[in-house]
Amino acid sequence: MEQNQNRREAMPGRGYLIVSVRAGEGAIPLEGALVTLRGGDATEGDAIASFITDQSGNTPRITLPAPPRANSERPNGGLPYASYSADISLDGYFTNLYTNIPIFDTITSVQAAYLIPLPEDGSGRTEEVLLFDARTGERLRGEGDE
Predict the structure, then answer these.
(1) What is the arithmetic mean of pLDDT over 122-130?
(2) What is the number of H-type helices and E-type strands within the chain?
(3) Average of per-residue pLDDT values in the chain
């Protein structure tokens, strides 16, 4: 709890995040997906908040602590964004985990999440998690990795 208080004091700005969850290469919005946010780049740790996507596949606009905008306006002003991670799960789909989601003061970021359906023949491992770096879009782990 004290660590969260220190984090808020170090980041007086406010940024915003909407997570957009879809399937079918982005064509099908997924209602009812559980989106759990965590602070930092960590793939584990305490959840900050959880949200359920609406019929358009989106979470509400989420307000998050961020460094002040002035950090990006001068050399060596400090990191201009805060990093968060999000777990996204829905029955019948592989769980996705996005790390390094950047949140800037006064800016609304949209994190697109494309869920992959589990195989209908039951051969998919429901505990498998697909890990992505939100800044690069690169898949770091999952589905067929050894």
Answers:
(1) 65
(2) 1, 10
(3) 84
